[in-house]
Design goal:
Blueprint lengths: L1 E11 L8 E15 L4 E6 L12 H13 L6 E7 L9 H16 L6 H12 L5 H6 L2 E6 L5 E6 L6 E7 L5 H6 L7 H20 L2 H7 L6 H4 L6 H10 L4 E4 L6 E5 L4 H13 L5 E5 L8 E4 L1
Parallel strand pairs: 3-4
Antiparallel strand pairs: 1-2, 1-11, 2-4, 2-5, 5-6, 7-9, 7-10, 8-9
Helix pairs in contact: 1-2, 2-3, 6-7, 9-10
Length: 301
């Protein structure tokens, strides 16, 4: 049996949605599992040299983790990984590996686990939910945890006129580094600021109202502390707004930047981001994308 799992990139921490709001994008990684008596990992595509082809490969570890959870021996596989999502850029590359490995294993095991059980394993491995949930389910998702520890996820409507534009620089930023700059505590004022702005953002994404999106994308929990890790951030922010962006935020932990625009302004926003980063001697891959509403797909061949 050969099983192909395709997983979308994600953008998380959307504006004020720190650690709870993420969306799937139209970039993908593909994981092909073939039952084989000669287990091996082969990686090709974007930045393949940066991904292990050994037993410590994250997708391979996720594959084995699901069978461990089932209390069964994982059958040996030949795993081929085709990368389209850049590494360590804030686009959920690790989430794609975790979801890819778990979903591939679940398929080969005969689908014993529900989406909820797969996601609980994924959150355990990733450490936070805002990348893995949209990676599996697609669309834009708000994730919350009740007092007893159970996770819940809500689909957030994303208006078709709200267009995501990503600017992916030629340098990496480790999530651990981006976490280290965050303060251990925040004030009530900052918490209330983010709660109110998150409410406005959810309404803005649903309706496409430019005024609400412009107001809503600011936050006080993570972006003010991480902007200094991203060369030229202030200039990029100004350049995007000048050509019509609703706003500019850090995608995930960075350094990729996410602008929101509309179908008319999107090309100008992309050009402005590329040209502005070039002034700082940063080569950037800038793409006008869409929201991947389908999530992870599985097919046998």
């Amino acid at each position: 049996m050969i099983t192909v799992v395709t997983v979308p990139a994600t953008t998380a921490n959307l504006g004020p949605g720190f650690d709870c709001l993420g969306a799937a994008l139209t970039l993908t990684n593909r994981f092909t599992f073939s039952l084989s008596d000669r287990p091996h990992v082969r990686v090709q595509g974007t930045e393949a040299a940066g991904v292990s082809n050994g037993s410590d490969n994250l997708a391979y570890r996720a594959y084995n983790r699901l069978y461990e959870y089932l209390g069964r021996q994982a059958p040996p596989v030949y795993l081929e990984i085709d990368l389209g999502v850049p590494l360590a850029r804030g686009l959920g590359s690790s989430a794609t590996a975790i979801i890819g490995g778990l979903v591939g294993a679940n398929r080969l095991a005969g689908f014993p686990l529900s989406h909820r059980e797969v996601l609980e394993l994924a959150i355990e491995m990733e450490g936070h939910p805002d990348n893995v949930v949209p990676a599996l389910l697609g669309g834009c998702r708000l994730v919350l945890q009740e007092g007893g520890g159970e996770w819940h996820w809500l689909e957030i409507p994303w208006h078709q006129e709200v267009v995501p534009i990503v600017a992916i620089p030629d340098f990496e930023l480790a999530t651990e580094t981006a976490r280290q700059v965050l303060p251990a505590h925040c004030t009530y004022g900052d918490a209330v600021f983010n709660i109110s702005h998150l409410g406005a953002l959810l309404r803005g994404l649903e309706t496409g109202q430019r005024e609400w999106l412009q107001l809503a994308l600011d936050d006080r929990l993570h972006q003010p502390y991480r902007q200094g890790l991203i060369k030229g951030y202030a200039d990029l922010h100004s350049a995007a707004l000048e050509v019509g962006a609703h706003g500019l935020v850090i995608s995930g932990a960075g350094p990729t930047l996410l602008a929101l625009g509309d179908p008319i302004t999107a090309p100008a926003i992309a050009a402005a981001l590329r040209e502005t980063w070039a002034k700082f001697n940063v080569q950037a891959r800038v793409e006008v994308l869409g929201i991947q509403r389908q999530g992870t797909t599985v097919r046998d061949r």
